[in-house]
Amino acid sequence: MKIDFKGVTGEELFFKINRVRINSDGKLDIKPQFSRQVRKVNGNDKLNFIALSVKIESTEEEPKPFDIRATVVGIFEVEDIKSDAEERSFVIEGTKAVYPYLRQAVSNLTATAGIAPLFLPVIAGTMFPEDRDSYGFTVSGGNLN
């Protein structure tokens, strides 16, 4: 299997300040929600996209001082995938390659908004439960045109 990382683009970068009171203890539990989409291009099975997203939204039950939605898309050219195990390996490694760009986008977004930069956690292992050996794994069958 050969993987060529072509680059990253920002698909969505949204920030909104919320006027909410932070607890006096100063602790803020932001609970980012991560998601991922893996797609191939119709007519070019070598071209793959891995979109990583994070969402942080304020609710009545859990108010947050801001809302963030960010999606970055990694572009990969992949050749010679011979098995589901290799496909799974590509998705896991591609996710690891794209995640630092998502972290940077969120940090830049918050800093540009004039608040203390938010640094998403560094993730050394797999990011999604389905990437761990004890879970099943599937790649979406949908293709991009």
How would you concisely characterize the structure shown here?
Helices cover 20% and strands 37% of the residues. By secondary structure, the protein is of the alpha+beta class.
Which shape, going by the Cα principal axes?
elongated
CATH T-level fold name: Bacterial Protein-export protein SecB
Number of helices: 1
| Percentage of residues assigned to helices | 10-25%
CATH top level label: Alpha Beta
CATH architecture, by name, is: Roll
Helix/sheet category: alpha+beta
**Strand-residue fraction?**
35-45%
Output the radius of gyration. 17 Å
Can you say what the CATH homologous superfamily is?
SecB-like
Q: Tell me the major beta sheet.
A: 5 strands, mixed
Task: Describe the fold and architecture.
With 145 residues, the protein is an alpha+beta fold. It has a single domain (2-140), classed as Roll (Bacterial Protein-export protein SecB), CATH 3.10.420. Helix content is 20%, strand content 37%. The protein contains one helix and five strands. The chain has a five-stranded mixed β-sheet. The protein is elongated. 17% of the residues are buried.
